[in-house]
Amino acid sequence: MYKSGPLGTDVSTTLGAKGATYDDRRRLSFAWWFASLGFFVLIWEAVWLLGLADERSLPPPHVFLSDFPAQARFFASTSGVGEESAGAAASVLISVLGTTLRVIVGLTIGFVLSVALGVAVRYFRLLGRLVLPTVRMLAPISPLAWLPVAIFVFGVGNGPAVFMVGIAVFFMILLATTSQIDLVPQNYLHVARIMGATRYQTYRHVILPTILPGLFVTLRLNLFGAWMVVLIAEAAGVGSGLGQVIMLARNTFNFSLVYFTMTLIGVLGFLFDFALAQVQSRALYWLPRTRRG
């Protein structure tokens, strides 16, 4: 059915134009990302071409990316004891998937537990008085300091890496949750009370939807820190994954392998942030598209 907006404008046409503008901005953002990456690679290649950098310590991208089979065999060498080494491409894929799954599981556990506890300490005031002082004392401790604890508790395997990722985001998101709840506009709470909402209904239908956008932003900002700690945990307590490959490259002074693995990590980090932005956009369905991230 035809609906008119202000000055006789077709509402569906207006919404379509806004949607097209949003899609155009996203395409332009991707175009600038590729342009930025291309500019960086161009400078790197130019430095090598002009002889300003040693090819052994700073090999250009076309050198360490072109010899994929030679680099991939090092990924096969990080297989666990007793495991049969796969082919070149399969070895890289196994390492990438292993690291990615550890990040996904750790982030999911850390995010869910921190938001749940953050809401609980504001919902139950006594719990907040008992928990928050200890949380503020533990929050400044670097996630790397938890690595020995993780190995003592979980042993060698996936446990330490997942725990490190979770602890890297847990305290920050927990404190962000309590701060976001304290900053919920009082007008929202007054309207909920006027409409007869219970305390539980106010938290579920007013406070939680209000704080989720900010919490997703905090999660995405801490995403890169999670990638840093999972690589360290893999190098020390897992024995496989991209972190173990980086450690192998350092021990053997294989600079091409270092930059090859760094490239993989950078691409994975970008794709992970993009995927998280898509999750954020769908989870915050009640917001306008331009405010979903």
Quick take:
The chain has helices at residues 11-49, 61-66, 68-76, 88-123, 125-138, 147-154, 158-182, 186-194, 199-238, 242-251, 255-283. The chain has 293 residues and is an all-alpha fold.
Describe this structure in words.
This protein is globular. The chain has helices at residues 11-49, 61-66, 68-76, 88-123, 125-138, 147-154, 158-182, 186-194, 199-238, 242-251, 255-283. It is built from 11 helices and no strands. Helix 4 (88-123) runs antiparallel to helix 9 (199-238), helix 6 crosses helix 7 and helix 9 (199-238) packs parallel to helix 10. It has 2 domains: 1-53; 71-291, Orthogonal Bundle (MetI-like fold). Helices cover 77% and strands 0% of the residues. The protein has 293 residues and is an all-alpha fold. Residues 1-19 and 80-84 have low confidence and may be disordered.
List keywords for this structure.
293 residues; mainly alpha; MetI-like fold; 2 domains; globular
